[in-house]
Structures are given as structure tokens and as C-alpha cells.
Amino acid sequence: MVPVQKWWQVPYFWAGTKCYDFLAGSEGIESSYFLPRSKALDAFPMLRKDNLFGALVYYDGAHNDSRMNVSLAMTAALYGCTVVNHMEVTGLTKDANGKLNGAKVKDLIAERNGEKDGEFTIKAKSIINATGPFTDSIRKLDDPSINEIVAPSSGVHIILPGYYSPAKMGLIDPSTSDGRVIFFLPWQGNTIAGTTDSPTEITKDPIPSEEDINWILSEIRGYLAPDINVQRDDVLAAWSGIRPLVRDPKAKNTESLVRNHLISVSNSGLLTCAGGKWTTYRQMAEEAVDEAIKQVNLRPGKPLATPNTSGVLSYSDNAVLDGTCQTHRVRLMGAHGYSKTLFINLIQHFGLATDVAKHLTQSYGDRAWEVAALSNPTDMRFPLRGVRLSPLYPFIDGEVRYAVRREYAQTAVDVLARRTRLAFLNAQAALETLPLVIDLMAEELKWDAKRKQTEWDDSVRFLMSMGLDKRRLGISRKDVEAGKF
């Protein structure tokens, strides 16, 4: 929803939303439309009433990017890729002619376990640098003198309780007090608000500033009814993402930078795919791989066997596995046996709670069957299976086991932030869940007491970047389990 405060804004916003509809083409969800003042307040009761003329409503898609990212990696593995997690590139190797022929890497999990032999070299005909905001750090391993091409931009988001927004209607302000766009949307049962856009330094776990958090709160207060007082204490989580914007030499600030991607090849053969966004990820991948094939004369071979893309029944993408690009046919793992009513089958078969069953099918597709099967009995009359990690959210114990056994999860943060979204939804709830997650992973990965303590310390430190109160740093597991915080 785009609130309209003056009658003359209607044609302007109407033209914008209709242009959006046109660009969506056949992939559009529904057509945009205008709501008069009374209807706008019915659709978004929290909206400020004074100076409201009406609203334009348009449709956009949303996704769970952590699950999307993991599904991409798992689909690649099904088609023959070797996927590794927590492997750091420390250097690039070259032959006598100065052409790249491999990379030096360090196994960070071996290091966490106290092992000393975690470094080795991987040989390669082609190296593709697709590392987002870390693009330039890899390019400088190839040539320390190169100019940077990525202008990192910080985008801060905050999470509020779900009651601050309707379940199926969000709000966007295309013209805030300083000209930036801000959104206020339902997300994963909560409300997400953001975002900022300012130059930043590249760090592993960026921490959102109080200034940015308060700016977002101030902006959304201006659109909500006066009796709805959004407070700083309402913020359940806050984080800062780093956008890998492609640098434009003529741009004076990051707001004018675009997220279009570019592909370049260095003199030594390093192929860099930089910039871009989720909506063009398949195009980016296709162009990058095509360029790699061209540069080193690769000859894609046919896989030995058609992969089992579905975990339940026999499905086919009708992909022609002859070495040509098939991205337009290949669906991600979990999509083949998915249906909007699949959650009912899970409830009937496993006795899952309804919100849990819906969450599993939306997050794992047809792989939800295996996740549910890995869940423990609850020892209750209902639900029969699925021990919740947190009473506030539908994440269950089977997801932790599945993440370790099927999705390469190696740390507690992998589960809390990169397989589930709990850390991004509620930092305090993630802290309270941490003991159970560590114990479940310890059973799967045979962690000793020292490794479990390492996971505790690192996870609490990570949760600081998710908005956990700084006073919690150094809190012990015993205190959390006793509720002393």
C-alpha cells in the first residue's frame, strides 16, 4: 500500500503502479488498484487518519532468502556440484604464464575443532568470483593494485511484533523525510521495517547503529495512528545487511548506485560476477558460466545419471542434460512435490501443529516429509510430533537434524540464521533457543564440551549483530536456562 495524502498525487502514483504491473507482464500477481480513504483504513487499520486521501495498492513477491539460498546449493549438489561450507579462500595460485590455476583454502571447521591441517590447495581450470560485498577482497588476491568496483551500502532492518501490520498488507513510503524509500511489511509472522542506504565498511557481522534504528522508528511513526506508539523496546531484532552495489564513477552517493550486475575477466583469468540482486540471479549465473566456458574452452559433460530431484515421488523437469544451460527448466529442490495443501498431509500423517506444518511445507517443499520424520514426539495429546525450538515460532527440532544431515550446517549460527530465520526474527528468542540447538547439533556432530562452549560464545557474539542487548554479551548458558537475563 502506498498512502496518498493529496488528491493530485493519485495520478502520479497510479501511473507508477500501472507501469509496475506492465513490467511484471504474465508473471504479475494481481493488478494494482486505488482505495478511497475508508477502504484504505479498513485494509490497514493502524494507518494515520489525518491527511489521508486514499491509497494505491500494488502486489509484489516476497521470499525467505535463507531457505532460497540453501535450496540453490542443495539443487546444485543434486546435479553434481561439490558444495562446501565454512571454507575460506586465503590465496590464489598461478602457473608459469601468470594464469590462475587454483586457490588456497582453509577449513574453518577444522580450526574450530583445534585441528592444525585445515589448509590446502584446490586446482581449477576456471575461478568464478561471486562473493557479493567481498568481491574486491578476492580480486585483490589476484591483483593487489586493482581499483575497487563494489561500493558497499548498509541497509538496516528492524523487526517488530506482528500486530503492528495486517497479515497480508504492507506499507511503503517512496518519499521519506530525507528522500529514501521505507517499507513496513508483514514477514514470517512479525513485521519488518526498513531500510537505510548509506556507505559502510565491509565487516563479517555488521552491527546496526542506534541512529539508523531510531530513524526507521521515527519514519514509521509518521504513518501510524497517534495512539499506536512504536517504541524502541518493541524492536525484536535489528540487523544491517551489506548491499554489493556496482560502483558508478559518476555517482556521488550510494543512493544513486544501481544493483545491475557486471561480469569481468582479469588478465590472469579471474572471472568476477559483481552486483545484481535476487530477481536476476539465474541470469547472472547463466552469463557467468557461459563466460567461463568461453574463456577456458570448457566442455560441459552430461551427468552420469539424471538426479533424483524430488524427495517423494518421481518428477521430471524435462531438462536436456547435454551440457547446455537448462536454468529455464530446472526447479529448485523441494519444488516438485509441493502443493498448497501439502501441509494437510503432514498434519494427518505426523500429527504436527497447523502452523508448524504450514511453515515446513513453505520452507522445505516436498522435503518437509523428511524434516517431520526427523522430529521427536512431543509427549502430548496434540501435536504428536515436532518439539518447538521456541514457543513463539513454528521452528522444530527436526529442522536442526535436517540442517546437519542434509544442508551442511556446522555451527549453531548456521541453524539459527542461515537455515531458519529465528535470529533475524527475534534475537532474544534465538538466545533462549541456543542451548537446545547446541545440544541437538552436539548429538549429530559428536561435539565435546569445549566445542559446545565455543559454539555458545560465538553464537552470543553473533546475536549482538542481530540486535541482542549488549548487556547480554558474556551471559552464560546456565543463566539463560535459569531465565536470569
What secondary-structure arrangement, pairings included, does this model have?
Layout: E1 2-4, H1 9-24, E2 33-36, H2 37-43, E3 54-57, H3 65-78, E4 87-94, E5 100-107, H4 108-112, E6 119-123, E7 127-129, H5 135-142, E8 150-160, E9 171-173, E10 182-187, E11 190-194, E12 198-199, H6 210-221, E13 237-246, E14 262-265, E15 270-274, H7 281-296, H8 342-350, H9 354-364, H10 368-373, H11 397-406, H12 412-419, H13 422-425, H14 427-445, H15 449-464, H16 477-481
Parallel strand pairs: 7-15
Antiparallel strand pairs: 1-3, 2-3, 4-5, 5-6, 8-11, 8-12, 8-13, 9-10, 10-11, 14-15
Q: How would you explain this protein's 3D organization?
A:
- The protein is an alpha+beta fold.
- Among the domains are: 1-61, no CATH class; 81-149 and 248-296, 3-Layer(bba) Sandwich (FAD/NAD(P)-binding domain); 341-482, Alpha-glycerophosphate oxidase, cap domain (Helicase, Ruva Protein, domain 3).
- Helix 8 crosses helix 9, helix 11 crosses helix 14 (427-445) and helix 14 (427-445) runs antiparallel to helix 15 (449-464).
- The model has no long low-confidence stretch (mean pLDDT 90).
- Strands 8, 9, 10, 11, 12 and 13 form a six-stranded antiparallel β-sheet that branches. A three-stranded antiparallel β-sheet has the order 1-3-2. The protein has a three-stranded antiparallel β-sheet with strand order 4-5-6.
- The two termini are 39 Å apart.
- The protein contains 16 helices and 15 strands.
